[in-house]
Structure formats: structure tokens, C-alpha cells
């Protein structure tokens, strides 16, 4: 029955393929690297269990670009559905503590990158004032180059999880502790709030590079990037949508040891009702920032200490 359900809905899956996104390409110190070379690829479609929050129409078979939920399989919440299956064939990016990384989202699943309807273009135009110059991917929908935007708002977070001694990053499932090193979230100006990376369909989102803190100890890590669409208190089931991906990195550093104590466990920190996973309808509709809202994924490490990670108030 599961297989027949998937076959019956395949056209709908293909039609919706560009509706969400995966993280597919890394830039190291401003240079875009080969797509999916250092990011664990997805198994797509992938059957996840348990899934389906009450009243949700998504199927257990979901393409890579469809949302992940906190009650999916733990490895799915950590790095994306079926990505651990690809860990051994994913290369490890060598970086130095203090280096800058950037990760590009793609609004399609890997099996759909070359479909003419929404073809993924990795070498965007470099012409002055071109739509996507400098970005790691663009699309060629309806015969013209267009940006890879985000069609959901929410906080984008970056976490590091150090690989246990004696293991290689290609064998690590992320079941250890995670430390958050970056958040891009809410801006407030002149009494108006907005989500920094959400600019509306077909508008170019701001670029959002981040640094590996200089105090990061040497070693291998999973780097997790995610943009969460939080649930709401007043309607729906309150279950957030997640869009996680993991980069395999090895950090060269003069610092030895481990990340600071106080890290978090994933998926536990992202479970239904945990801080940052739910907000009021007023915040959902950009009317105001909830006074008690903190960004999901635990405290933020600024390279020296863990700090509370919250948006500015209005």
C-alpha cells in the first residue's frame, strides 16, 4: 500500500518540487565549491516514520526539498532525510578556525535539478547588475534566470557537532552534542519587523555567510544548517517545519579540546513546543515580536561564551 500511494501522488510531488528547498552548495572564503561535494546528499523520495502531524496533508514519501518535522527519524532531523546513507561518499572540507562559509539553498530536489521546467543553474550570470551574480545557484524558470529565494520565513541557524574521538566524520550520525554558532532571524526598524532572509517569491534574498569561530578546537565536525518555519500557538498543530542539511568539515586550529559545555541534543531541542519552535499568530503575521520568543536550537556561542539567542523587541 505504501508503494501504490507513492505512485499515485508522483505527479503532485514533481509539481511541488520547486516549492521548498535543500542546502546544496558551499562557499569557502567566498569561493563556491562543487555542488553536493561536501554536503550530505538526500535519499529522495524517502519514507520517514513517524511523521504526519495531525491535519497535515504531506505524505510519508517526501522528496528532499519537502519539509522535515521534529517527529521524523532522528537522523532526518539532524541532517535531512536519508542523508546518512550518503555520508561515506561525501568529501570532507578542510577549513581553518576563523574562515568564512556560506551555504546555498536550492528550491528543488536533486532528481529535479535538470528538469527544464525549473532547471538549476550553478554558474549564475556574472554580468553587472545581473539577478544572481555571486550566488551559488539560480534557476532558469520560464526562460529567464531567477534567484533561489526562500518561500518560508523563520530563523536560519548553524550548529557544529564535534566527531567523537576515534571516529571519522563520514561515520558520525550527529547523536552527540551540538553548539550553535550563528543565527539570522528578525530585524526591527521603525516599529516594523521582518525576517531577514524572507523577501518574497522571486526576490533575491540577502547573502548570509558566517564564520567558524576562531576559538573552535581542531578536529572533524558536522556543520548543520537549517531554516525553521515555526508553528503557531493559535492554529494548526504547532509543529515547526525544518529544512536541515549537514556539511562535513575538518577544522585546523591552534585550539585543542572540545566545544564549550552546554551544547544541545538534536532532535530533542527541536521537539514540539521547545523554545523557538512556536510563536504567536501576531508574530507569524509580522505584527510584533513575541516578548518571550527565543531562537530555536539552544544558546549561541560567540566564540567565548554561550549567550541567550533572541530577536530584538519592538
UniProtKB/TrEMBL annotation:
Single GO BP term: cellulose catabolic process
InterPro entries: AA9, AA9_LPMO
Cellular component, GO annotation: extracellular region
Enzyme class at the top of the EC tree: oxidoreductase
Family under the similarity heading: Belongs to the polysaccharide monooxygenase AA9 family.
Cofactor: Cu(2+)
Protein known as: lytic cellulose monooxygenase (C4-dehydrogenating)
UniProtKB keywords: Carbohydrate metabolism, Cellulose degradation, Copper, Disulfide bond, Metal-binding, Monooxygenase, Oxidoreductase, Polysaccharide degradation, Secreted, Signal
All copies of domain Auxiliary Activity family 9 catalytic, residue ranges: 75-279
A GO molecular function held by the record: monooxygenase activity
Protein's cellular compartments: Secreted
KW Secreted (keyword) present: yes
Signal sequence segment: 1-19
Organism whose genome encodes this protein: Bimuria novae-zelandiae CBS 107.79
Catalytic activity: [(1->4)-beta-D-glucosyl]n+m + reduced acceptor + O2 = 4-dehydro-beta-D-glucosyl-[(1->4)-beta-D-glucosyl]n-1 + [(1->4)-beta-D-glucosyl]m + acceptor + H2O
Pfam families: AA9
Membrane-crossing segments per the record: none
EC nos: 1.14.99.56
Amino acid at each position: 500500500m505504501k508503494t501504490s500511494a507513492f505512485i499515485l501522488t508522483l505527479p503532485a510531488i514533481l509539481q511541488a518540487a520547486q516549492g521548498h528547498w535543500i542546502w546544496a552548495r558551499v562557499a569557502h572564503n567566498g569561493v563556491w565549491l562543487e555542488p553536493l561535494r561536501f554536503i550530505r546528499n538526500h535519499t529522495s523520495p524517502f519514507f520517514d516514520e513517524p511523521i504526519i502531524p495531525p491535519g497535515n496533508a504531506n505524505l510519508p514519501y517526501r522528496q528532499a526539498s519537502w519539509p522535515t518535522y521534529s517527529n521524523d527519524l532522528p537522523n532526518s532531523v539532524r541532517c535531512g532525510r536519508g542523508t546518512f546513507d550518503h555520508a561515506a561518499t561525501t568529501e570532507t572540507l578542510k577549513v581553518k578556525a576563523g574562515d568564512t562559509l556560506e551555504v546555498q539553498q536550492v528550491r528543488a530536489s536533486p532528481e529535479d535539478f535538470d528538469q527544464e521546467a525549473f532547471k538549476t543553474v550553478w554558474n549564475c550570470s556574472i554580468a553587472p547588475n545581473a539577478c544572481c551574480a555571486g550566488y551559488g545557484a539560480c534557476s532558469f524558470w520560464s526562460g529567464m534566470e531567477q534567484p533561489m529565494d526562500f518561500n518560508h520565513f523563520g530563523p536560519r541557524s548553524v550548529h557544529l557537532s564535534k566527531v567523537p574521538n576515534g571516529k571519522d566524520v563520514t561515520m558520525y550520525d550527529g547523536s552527540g552534542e551540538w553548539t550553535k554558532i550563528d543565527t539570522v532571524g528578525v530585524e526591527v526598524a521603525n516599529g516594523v519587523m521582518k525576517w531577514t532572509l524572507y523577501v518574497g517569491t522571486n526576490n533575491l534574498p540577502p547573502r548570509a555567510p558566517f564564520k567558524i569561530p576562531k576559538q573552535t578546537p581542531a578536529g572533524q565536525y558536522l556543520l548543520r544548517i537549517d531554516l525553521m518555519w515555526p508553528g503557531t500557538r493559535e492554529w494548526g498543530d504547532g509543529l515547526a517545519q525544518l529544512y536541515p542539511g549537514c556539511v562535513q568539515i575538518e577544522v585546523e586550529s591552534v585550539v585543542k579540546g572540545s566545544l564549550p559545555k552546554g551544547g544541545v541534543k538534536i532532535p530533542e531541542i527541536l521537539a514540539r513546543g521547545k523554545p523557538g519552535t512556536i510563536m504567536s499568530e501576531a508574530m507569524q503575521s509580522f505584527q510584533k515580536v513575541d516578548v518571550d520568543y527565543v531562537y530555536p536550537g539552544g544558546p549561541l556561542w560567540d566564540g567565548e561564551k554561550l549567550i541567550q539567542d533572541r530577536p530584538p523587541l519592538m
